[in-house]
Amino acid sequence: MSPSRAFPVLFGAVALAHLGALLAGSSVALVTKPALMPLLAAYVLTRGGPRLLAGALLFGCGGDVLLQVGGDLPFLLGMASFAAGHGCYLVLCSRHGSPGGARTRRLAAGYGAAWLVTVALLWPGLEAGLRVPVALYSLLLVTMALCATRTLPLAAAGGALFVVSDTLIATGVAGWPQAPAAQFWVMLTYIGAQLLLAEGLLRSAEAETEGAGRPPGPSSDERGRQRTASRASTMPKP
Questions:
Q1: How far apart are CA 14 and CA 235, in angstroms?
Q2: For the whole model, what pTM was predicted?
Q3: Taking Cα atoms as reference points, which of 60, 47, 9 lies closest to residue 190?
Q4: Spatial contact of 89 and 143, defined as CB atoms under 8 Å apart
Q5: Residue 36: how many CB atoms within 10 A of its CB?
């Protein structure tokens, strides 16, 4: 089995083991969580994907490890690591498509409203030292999710899932009542988000590379001359 096929299988196996461990309350989850993003980054590199995309995933691994430590300082450092990953995603997404248009304005308004409402609701429950960092981080997160809509729908869905996952984390930090197996739902949406972002941006990069490798097609004037010549060649001769 080639590495480009082996790493997705390994990633899927570790992801299932991690989610199962969360449901079972097993300490295996502590070991499997830090392994997830390096496997996904290795898959990206074996596919010839951008190193910046692999870097975004490895920053996610750093955040995963730090959030397992517990405490305010590791939480802030973990948030900073995830923020660096979102910065990588922003750079990658900005290379595809172009901003503007009614659809982008509607999405921007939707993400902006969601950010404002969420921060306002979470604010009273957050510790004073976490309020501004969480607000700034979440603004970067929704900006990344909005920028991801400029690429393939896979990446756009990944950006939206990342917002859901981090919002679930934030509600726990703010002391809101949590659903049963809360960490399971956080990690399920997080793993899905990273996978969709990675695959969507990989395909976008591959499509861009293939497009750049094609010879330029004829101009509109050349196509017109070709059609005229073709019609002339089929006309009956006197």
A1: 67
A2: 0.85
A3: 60
A4: no
A5: 23
